[in-house]
Amino acid sequence: MLTFLSPVGFLLALAGALPLLGLAVLERRAQNVRRALRLDPPDRRRRLELTGALAAVAVLLGLAAAQPVLAVTHEKAARSDAEVLFVFDVSRSMQAASGETGSTRLERAKQLAIRVRAALGDIPAGVASMTDRTLPYLFPTANTSVFNATVERVVRIESPPPASRVGNPGGRATTLGALASIANQGYFAPGTTHRLMIALSDDESEPFAEAGIGAVFRKPPRVRTIFVRFWGPNERIYAGGRLDPVYRPDPASARIVESLALATRGRAFQEQQLADILRTARVDLGTGAVRRNRLERARTPIAAWVAAAALLPLGLVLRRRNF
């Protein structure tokens, strides 16, 4: 499918009328001269070639100015009543790993999210980040390729950074209380009856009002919750080949997430419990109507190629410039 980012660019093609008008005036004068001198008229084919070449240059440049984009689309079956949102903790503690060459908590979270999303199949999925605030990266979509690309390329440590750093010398920035905005700030499409948030975090959080968060998630339309903890007692932060001397894993994070899961009537798991996570997610999302959705697989700008194509008729014009 061909679309145009700047359709107004087609107005550039109107500029082609000027050289064509000039050519017509020149040809009329030349015809009067030939009559006065009783000369034979030139080859009609050559005149038509030049006229067509000038028109082609104008049309192709106008087309290029409209910024054409070639979109390849396909259809995919997706639930129309259910969505899942993966919320990644991107605070600095998620950079911790069991060794300098080991996988960080965030890297493991991203791998698990991609596996869970693939297993859920026809459920539209989105991506968001969490520190002391939540921000959307991708609203729920049935396009698995876009989801995977967002997780792999966009989700980064402190990207964006927390709004403020408060609490302790280690610069802890996670506040699980920030998850409340997931339930009431438009992260899910209106009319979605089965809503699921999967939070992927080490759960090393500043204090927050658990009861208040639970009330927000239970309020209709209810958002069901799954909390996946990425944490190890011997994990440390390695930055630039050096060990961070300040950071220490917080074992109290297990109690914090269990309490939050209880308040929201959700479930809390460790990262190794993939089968249990999938089983719970499928129960939370239930069953519902499936419909076909048209998805864009790729968008390729072709303005540069169209502009390059204008060089061919332009070359003919230059070759016949003495016509």
Describe this structure in words.
This protein has 323 residues and is of the alpha/beta class. The protein folds into two domains: 2-71 and 296-319, no CATH class; 81-288, Rossmann fold, CATH 3.40.50.410. 38% of the residues lie in helices and 24% in strands. Helix 6 links the parallel strand 7 and strand 8. Helix 6 (210-218) packs parallel to helix 7 (253-263). The longest helix is centred in the first third of the chain and has 22 residues, at 44-65. The radius of gyration is 31 Å and the shape is elongated. The two termini are 40 Å apart.
Entry keywords:
323 residues, alpha/beta, Rossmann fold, 2 domains, 6-stranded mixed beta sheet, 3-stranded antiparallel beta sheet, 24% strand
Give the overall silhouette.
Answer: elongated
CA-CA gap between termini:
40 Å
From N to C, what is the helix and strand string?
A: EHHEEEHEEHHEHEEEHEHEHH
Work out the count of structural domains: 2
- Relative helix content: 25-40%
CATH architecture name of the largest domain: 3-Layer(aba) Sandwich
Helix- and strand-based class? alpha/beta
**Proportion of strand residues:** 15-25%
CATH topology (fold) name of the largest domain: Rossmann fold
CATH class of the largest domain: Alpha Beta
In short:
The protein has 323 residues and is of the alpha/beta class.
Show the helix and strand layout.
Elements: E1 2-4, H1 17-37, H2 44-65, E2 68-79, E3 82-89, E4 96-97, H3 105-120, E5 125-130, E6 134-141, H4 144-153, H5 180-184, E7 194-201, H6 210-218, E8 223-229, E9 236-239, E10 242-243, H7 253-263, E11 267-270, H8 274-285, E12 290-301, H9 303-309, H10 311-319
Parallel strand pairs: 3-5, 3-7, 7-8, 8-11
Antiparallel strand pairs: 1-2, 2-12, 4-9, 5-6, 9-10
